[in-house]
Structure formats: C-alpha cells, structure tokens
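Reading a protein record of the kind used here takes little practice once its layout is understood. The reader may check this reading against the record printed directly beneath this paragraph.
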Amino acid sequence: MIKLFAKLSANLKNFKAAKAALFGAGVFLIVYFLQINLVIALFLVALYAYFKKRCLNIRSCNALNLVFLFLLIFTLCYFILKERWPIFFLPFSFLPLLVTLLFSSLELSLILNLALAISLAAYSANPFALFLFFLFGAVFASIFTFGARRRTTVIRAGLFTGILQAAALVFLEHFWIGQPLRYLILAVNSLACSVIVLGALPIFEYLFNNITNISLLELADFHHPLLQRMIMEAPGTYHHSLVVGNLSESACRAVGANALLARIGAYYHDIGKLSKPGYFSENQEVSESKHDNLTPTISKMIIMNHVKEGVELAKKYKLGAALQDFIQEHHGKSLVYYFYRRALEALEEDHEVKEEGFRYPGPKPNTKETAVVLLADSVEAATRALKDPSPAKVEELVHKVINNKFIDGQLDECDLTLKDLEKISAVFIRILSGIYHSRISYPEERNGQNLNKKPAKENPHQSQKDKKSNP
C-alpha cells in the first residue's frame, strides 16, 4: 500500500513538472512570435512559479485564472499599441482594480501588473512612460480599492488614480503642460476602467467561482430567500447564526482575517437545519425533544445530515464555493458527543460503539475564517446552555471549548496560531459576557401599588395635633 501511494505521488509530481514545462514552452513560443525579447519569457515563467507558491494562502486563487487575466489585458493592450494609438488609451487601472476585488490581495495585484507592464514595455516605443503609468495604476488603484464594500469606492478609486496619473505626467515632463487633452484622457481612462470593472465583475466571479465583498454584502440582505425561511421556519437557528456572525466578525478582525466573509459565512452555515428544524435544540420547546423517542444512531444521522443538506441548498441558491466551505467545515470532524454518550449508555453485551461513526465527515477548517466560525458556533451553543452565565463561568467555558477543539485536532489544517487563539478567546469572552449576563429581578406591583416607590419622609415640622388627626 505504501509503495502504491509513493508511486502515485511520483506520477503526480511528474504530471505537475510536465504541466509547468508545457506552460514555459508556450510562453517562449508566444514571446518569440510577438518578437519580444526572450528575457521577458524567463521573467514571466519565474513569476508563474512564484504564483504557484504564494497562491496556496489565498482563497480561490488559481494560477490559471491569473494567466487568463494577464493574457486578456495583454492582448487588448497589444492591439492598441499595434495600431499605434497613444499609450494614454491603455487600460492601466483595469487589471489592478479587478485583481484586488477578486482576490483581496495587494501583492497579487502589484506583481501581476508588474508582469504586464514589463511585457508591454518591451514592445512599446516609449517603454519608460508606459511602465510608469502601469506602476502608478497598480499601486494606487489597488490601495484605494482594497477592502472595498461599495461600488462607489471602486468608482472613487478609478477617479483618484486617474488624477494621480495625470499629475505623474506633469512631473514626467518637468511641469511643461502641453496638449491638455492627454491629462483629461488619463483621468477619464482610469474612471472608465472602474466602471467597466464593476460591470464585468459578476462575470469573473462566475468564471472563477469566487465571491467579492460587494457580493457578500448583497447576501447579507435579510430579504434573501434562505434567511427569510430561517426567520419563519427556524427562528432559534436564525438567532444563533446572527450571534455566531457577530462573534466571528469581531474575532476575525482581531486576527487579521476577512471579517466580512466570516460574518456572512456564519449567517448561512446552518441553513441545512431548514429541512428538519424541530430536531435541533435551539428550535425545540423546553418541555420535550423529538430525540426522546429515537435511537442515538438515528438522532446523530439527523444531526450530522444538516451539513450535507446545507451544501445542497447552497448549490441550489448559488451561494458560491466560499460560503459552501463554511457549511462543510463549521463542524470539522468533531464528535457528536451527546448522542455518542447516549449510545454508550444504551450499549448491550456483544456490541460495540465506534467513535468514528459519531464524527462529522469534515473536512476540517482550512482557513482562518472557517476555523473562527467553528469556534464561535461551539462557544455560542455551549454558553447558551449555561444556567448561570456569570462572567467567570463564561470565561472558563470559552477557554474549555477552544482548548478541546485544539486538542481534538480540529484546527490542524488552518493557520491560526496560539496567539491568535488567545485573541479570539478574549473577543468571545467580552461579547458573550455582554449578551448572556445575569439580570436582577425587579419586584412586581401589588394591588396597583408600585413597590419600587419609597414612602414619603415624615415632615419634622408637622404639629403634634396634626399627627394625631392623621394617624
């Protein structure tokens, strides 16, 4: 078995090597056909290798998607230069705006735009000016767009980038302002790029199976059919998801993860419970449970199946792969402990209860965001079950739950550090202590009198005669 696995691994490595070699050969052929210096081909191959390493830490980042974007913009710019149009008509801001929105990475935007600038500069008659404007577009458009949640932010980024590029042209020509139309073209060019990017963004989201902050905010609308169903059919799950979303957003902000993605992922992580909402504790009446008349095996199948049914609902409503990850990974491979204990208690002779049969199928969380939602989901459910949620008990419970998840190996595949877990614990304790704090009991009114009202003080100047007449 070990030899077979080693053989398959070797074949896979050979396939990857052949794929990389084929890509390199293709780049050299294209560069040779376009009559560009072959050094550019070496530079592009080196960048491709860099992408393959760095993209492992960026969600939905695929080197082929980046190559597609590069070739798309390169082809457009190539024909503009071939027709000998002024370089001011080149879409300098299009690529950085689009890459920053799609992948939320300043690094990818800068490096990809650098590759485009150097490749086109080798073909252009004015390489320095072309490279400068692409560099300005990469830096400023990416910075202004990073973390954008509104379309107006993208429009503003395009406008500001265009103004700065026009200023760069003034500096490049040593403050000699000639042909003012060129400055206007640069400003309008960048603004037009931002408008086109917004129009084309849904297409690239669909092609790359990706989701941006703008689309996430649209999914946060509580008029979404799935959220409306949760409000009406599973109000307990809906409230639980809101609290988990708030916990996850604050925790992700503390550890430098995508807070918006975590919040929206938490809103939809339990949509699979819509198929059988009454079988989950947050939607049940206190006096009875539907699991009382079921065997532990049947109960755990119903509980665990909400992950599979959630993924099916997500596909039906086209939520995207990013949100499907939250549904699949928010339990990892955790143990359904309650029904596992019931199965052990009902164990008969000559029978065996395997722990593996009471674990979720996984996979385990592989990003910070899905790992935080897993922790928030477990902590919120455990805190809600406390009879006396004092701050000390909440703090003890939060540390206990997170430690158990860590020891159980549910966080092995994500890049959360111990320092991150401490920050997450502090956020959870602060928020949960505020939500589930104990309240004082107010005295009730009796016989129409308010018991909170204090009796009037006796007037020391009242005469003895008045006191006797008014006992």
Observations:
- The chain is about 65% helix and 0% strand.
